[in-house]
Amino acid sequence: MAASQINTTDSVTGAPAAIDTELVGGKHHPSHGVRDGMDEALGARADAAAATDAGAFSLIALFKRLLGKMPSTLGPKSAANSLSVTLSTDDDALLGSLTEAAPANDTASSGLNGRLQRIAQNLTALNLPASATWRYAAVAGGEIGTADVPVKAAVAGQRNHMTWLTAVNAHATVDTEILVKDGAATVLYRGFLKAAGGRLDIEFRSPLSSTVNTALNVANVTTGAQVYFNCGGYVAP
Fold it and tell me: pLDDT, tens digit, for every residue of 64-76?
């Protein structure tokens, strides 16, 4: 294309327009192909896939390498048919195995699976089936000694929880302290009953709880008192 065929004036402003001198000279006229080096950068359709990620290859060769790293099918059908992933070595510790046990309390260290089991146990304790509840009725004549009285026997792998307690001292003159105990040694609650009808009616908003595999006991502290114990609660981890 000759220079005389090129309009060198901007039709709007009237100012001189920039001209590609190589285009004017016909060097890059469509019939002459693409700009120098462009065919090498893009590559030919028959170019083989690049051998490495870092070498000097055409765009087509690099694109073929990228496609070759993808599996034939993608999606949720199975892990084998999805993109391969290398998991961090601590992922199992963070997530926890499928058989991980729940932690002993809400602040103990555990994986995610164990923590979810602990949450489920706590929810179970809030919404219990009737079969998980228990109730103890006083014996005829009341308790007159100081020996431990098991109001709820130990349950394998479970803890006993007391949510309410009624205690009445029927002795005419003997006052006494009363105890609720976790097994034989740990006192969970201590109260006092006056003689001649001293009474306690308690609802424990925070249940009195035994340790795992341990009975809940009640007891008088003073011999000679005559205390009627009635109580109840539930069984849960």
Answer: 888 887 766 555 5
